[in-house]
Specification:
- The chain is about 65% helix and about 0% strand.
- It is mainly alpha-helical.
- The protein has a domain at about 40-83.
- Helix 2 (about 25-40) packs across helix 5.
- The longest helix is centred in the middle third of the chain and has 17 residues, at about 25-40.
- The N and C termini lie far apart (about 50 Å).
- It is found in: Mitochondrion.
- Belongs to the CMC family.
- Keywords: Disulfide bond, Mitochondrion.
């Protein structure tokens, strides 16, 4: 069982305030680029969703071509540093 000092240190660590998120800006930008890419490829996203409707086991086989087209479109709109 932890002693009082260990408990105090653990408590101080939990209550020390917000943690620093050094990659917060990079993560925000990545999400914005992904959102924009999905908007630019909306027609292909819709085609894939339509192909996938009602399919379970056959989805990867039946919709492979549509999925590959969607991936190519997303790759074109992905920033260079993510390639």
């Amino acid at each position: 069982m932890p002693d009082a000092e260990e408990k105090s240190d653990a408590r101080d660590g939990r209550l020390s305030g917000p943690k620093s998120f050094p990659n917060r800006q990079a993560e925000f930008e990545r999400k914005q680029h992904s959102k924009r890419a999905l908007e630019l490829c909306a027609d292909r996203v819709e085609a894939y969703a339509e192909c996938a409707t009602g399919r379970t086991i056959t989805l990867p086989f039946y919709c492979r071509g549509v999925f590959n087209e969607l991936n190519e479109c997303l790759k074109q709109h992905k920033p260079a540093e993510q390639n």
